[in-house]
Design a protein that fits this description.
The chain is α/β, with parallel strands linked by helices. The protein has 3 domains: 3-87, Arc Repressor Mutant, subunit A (Orthogonal Bundle), CATH 1.10.10.10; 92-160 and 261-291, D-Maltodextrin-Binding Protein, domain 2, CATH 3.40.190; 164-252, Periplasmic binding protein-like II (D-Maltodextrin-Binding Protein, domain 2, 3-Layer(aba) Sandwich), CATH 3.40.190. It is 42% helix and 22% strand. Strands 4-3-5-14-6 form a 5-stranded mixed β-sheet. Helix 1 packs across helix 3 (30-44) and helix 1 (3-16) packs across helix 4. The radius of gyration is 30 Å and the shape is elongated. The chain starts with a helix and ends with a helix. The mean pLDDT is 88.
Length: 292
């Protein structure tokens, strides 16, 4: 017995209320349809229909089975549509929340490549580092960079990881006490990133309490203050790599243990995720892998 076919016939029969009408719509004989329904009942060990010469009525079990059968067929239809979307160029709008500095640096290049690969997807990108409720704000997708695990009501996929660097300008290092150990930072002007979950504790070795005269919610702004010789910053690689290469800043405590900053793609939990979201995340995962 083709059970899925039997379920489809059962649902159609429940909707139409007549073997004759089902036969007309499916180009099958009434006897074949009756046999399929009978086999379905036998496989379940329960009667689903009360049959009469005029019509059919659902039994109590049949009513409960019908509701669940509809759910099965709807999910199967969604699954088939999902595959069909993936086989063709996805289209539509994606509203995305992106961390500010990552959006200006690495992700701006990634999204440019994505737009070339998927020109039929319209991107609506919002840059910002503050925590937002993706569902409440109507976002399809969000990106978060975190150095520690966090509670989330979303599905999260890690995409890549960045290193942290303790940075100061050569001028600052020439005019201030030598830094050899993490605890030496306590005698220096260390800048604070407003959204950093560790607050005034930098996660170097076992953690070191720092203080300074600048607290800012943008790490590019902080980098400029570091380059100007005003203090020390704890910065991810996507912020300071260029400045390190150009020797505008120097790395200190390079051998000290520091966490990785992991970039996650987050999307609201749902039974079936739209193909355009899967395509975007898969593209990003491959894009960062190619860069590694």
């Amino acid at each position: 017995m083709d059970k899925l076919r039997a379920i489809e016939l059962f649902v159609r029969l429940a909707d139409l209320g007549s073997f004759t009408r089902v036969a007309e719509q499916t180009n099958a004989s009434k006897s074949m349809i009756s046999k399929e329904i009978k086999r379905l009942e036998e496989s379940l060990g329960a009667r689903l229909l009360h049959r009469s010469t005029r019509n059919v009525r659902l039994t109590h079990v049949g009513e409960g089975y019908l509701q669940r059968a509809r759910d099965i067929l709807a999910k199967l239809d969604d699954a088939n549509n999902f595959v069909q979307e993936l086989q063709h160029s996805p289209r539509g709008k994606l509203k995305i929340n992106v961390p500010m500095v990552l959006g200006i640096t690495d992700l701006s290049h990634m999204f440019a490549d994505f737009m070339r690969a998927y020109p039929d997807i319209e991107l609506d990108i919002h840059l910002g580092d503050e925590d937002v409720d993706l569902v409440e704000q109507g976002f399809d997708l969000g990106f978060r960079a975190a150095s520690r695990s966090f509670d989330s009501s979303y599905v999260g996929r890690p995409l890549t990881a960045f290193n942290y660097h303790v940075c100061a300008s050569p001028d600052y290092l020439d005019t201030h006490p030598v830094i050899e150990l993490p605890r030496d930072l306590q005698n220096h002007n260390c800048f604070v990133y407003s959204y950093f979950k560790g607050k005034d504790i930098w996660p170097i070795e076992d953690g070191i309490a720092i203080s300074g005269n600048l607290k800012v919610n943008n790490t590019l702004f902080m980098l400029e203050a570091v380059k100007s010789g005003l203090g020390i910053g704890f910065l991810p690689s996507f912020v300071c790599d260029s400045a390190l290469k150009n020797k505008q800043v120097s790395e200190i405590l390079a051998s000290s243990e520091k966490p990785k900053l992991t970039l996650y793609a987050l999307y609201p939990a749902r039974h079936l995720v739209p193909a355009k979201i899967i395509q975007c995340i898969d593209f990003m995962e491959q894009w960062f892998s190619d860069k590694a």
